[in-house]
Structure to design on (453 residues):
């Protein structure tokens, strides 16, 4: 596979791909309100979930029966904030103890726990016949994902994965317009994401910034976690045949970089082609100097270009016509959770995003590493330290990102002094991901105190 094929608009779509109709996933008898709920996770993002469920509880939508967190002894303030005692929420340190205490009294299980725990917790809820809301990403390990899909086949109700944009009516309406042919055929999608993160972010847990924990893949990165929503959005819009469908990748060229002292990557540049022939251009980094986050989603059609800035500001530009601008709703954990609760109680024929719908996301994330080949350490002399948190940044990362988005030029091709070539691969390499990550770890070396892992 040549890199030029990824950039070439003449590259054909792969033939023989199965047509996936996700439009209807019917359930049996709707569950009754309030949904009796258990939440795995109290600290971290779990606290945000508890705030959402407390509000839903006040409206009679849910009733939180129990929650768990291994750090329970240190989370007294959060427990008080969410009034667990007053609301009668039982607390546990051990997930299994929570389930054993309620063997037949739960309707909904929520997994707001670290990503390495997603698969076993999902299986436990499914085996007990409990509907599951699973935070994104479900996993970044393709092998584990396939095992999760096998478990999901036994589920009484389909799991919802909490990607926070694809349930929004504004985005569904925009995709409907695309599918009517209003803008012509879709040729290319791109995402530029710059979201600065400091040392506290990479030290927030034992799996943060890691490629592996023991024998398990983690692959924590800007696109695998914090900006995963936007990668998922690209794949959602890229499937122009089904409203609630997601495209899958075919091949990729990629360069991976590391500015912070972590095991994984914090800066990614990628060019990819999907099964349907549509091109992706992706540039994302946590090592950026700008304090405010920058998110730009761009969809290039034959007759129009659609840009979504900061996830809420849409501009549709057509040759020779005034620019159409309007606002759409932004991401909301509350609306995402409420959407799934509505499905469980009879509103709608399917969740916003099922586990199966995440296949393209997991494959695309895997290709980042397989194509990148290794993570290049950015020399310390290039980097800047700023602020009281000593945040590390790459000064010209936005320039490199915009060059890739506008010209399909990777940083090494553009001659940036910190850049180094990555590689290319196709989806046929995905079964080799574990071996490739172990090889990647073997290539890493400590080049300075600022880059040791």
């Amino acid at each position: 596979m040549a890199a030029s094929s990824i950039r070439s608009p003449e590259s054909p779509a792969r033939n023989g791909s199965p047509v996936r109709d996700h439009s209807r996933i019917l359930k049996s008898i709707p569950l009754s309100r309030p949904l009796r709920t258990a939440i795995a996770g109290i600290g971290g993002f779990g606290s945000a979930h508890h705030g959402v469920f407390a509000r839903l509880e006040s409206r009679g939508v849910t009733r939180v029966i129990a929650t768990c967190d291994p750090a329970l002894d240190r989370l007294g303030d959060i427990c008080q904030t969410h009034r667990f005692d007053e609301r009668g929420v039982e607390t546990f340190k051990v997930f299994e103890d929570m389930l054993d205490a309620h063997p037949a009294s739960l309707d909904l299980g929520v997994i707001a726990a670290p990503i390495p725990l997603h698969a076993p917790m999902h299986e436990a809820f499914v085996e007990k016949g409990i509907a599951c809301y699973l935070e994104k990403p479900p996993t970044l390990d393709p092998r584990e994902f396939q095992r999760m899909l096998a478990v999901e086949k036994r589920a009484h109700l389909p799991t919802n994965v909490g990607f926070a944009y694809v349930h929004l009516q504004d985005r569904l309406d925009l995709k409907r317009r695309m599918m009517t042919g209003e803008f012509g055929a879709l040729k290319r999608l791109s995402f530029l994401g710059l979201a600065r993160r400091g040392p506290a972010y990479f030290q927030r847990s034992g799996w943060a910034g890691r490629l592996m924990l023991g024998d398990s893949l983690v692959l924590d990165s800007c696109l695998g976690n914090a900006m995963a929503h936007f990668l998922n959005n690209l794949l959602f819009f890229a499937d122009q045949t089904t409203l609630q469908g997601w495209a899958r990748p075919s091949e990729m060229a990629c360069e991976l970089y590391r500015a912070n002292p972590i095991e994984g990557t914090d800066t990614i540049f990628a060019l990819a082609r999907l099964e349907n022939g549509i091109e992706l251009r992706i540039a994302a980094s946590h090592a950026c100097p700008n304090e405010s986050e920058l998110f730009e989603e761009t969809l290039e059609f034959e007759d129009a270009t659609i840009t979504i800035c900061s996830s809420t500001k849409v501009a549709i530009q057509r040759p020779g016509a005034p620019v159409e601008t309007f606002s759409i709703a932004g991401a909301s954990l509350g609306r995402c959770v409420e959407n799934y609760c509505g499905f469980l109680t009879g509103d709608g024929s399917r969740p916003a995003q099922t586990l199966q719908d995440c296949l393209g996301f997991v494959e695309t994330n895997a290709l980042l590493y397989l194509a990148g080949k290794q993570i290049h350490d950015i020399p310390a002399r290039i980097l800047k330290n700023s602020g009281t948190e000593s945040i590390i940044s790459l000064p010209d990362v936005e320039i490199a990102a915009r060059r890739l988005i506008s010209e399909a030029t990777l940083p090494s091709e553009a001659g940036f002094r910190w850049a180094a070539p990555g590689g290319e691969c196709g989806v046929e390499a995905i079964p080799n991901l574990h071996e490739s990550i172990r090889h990647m770890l073997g290539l890493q070396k400590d080049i300075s105190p600022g880059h040791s892992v």
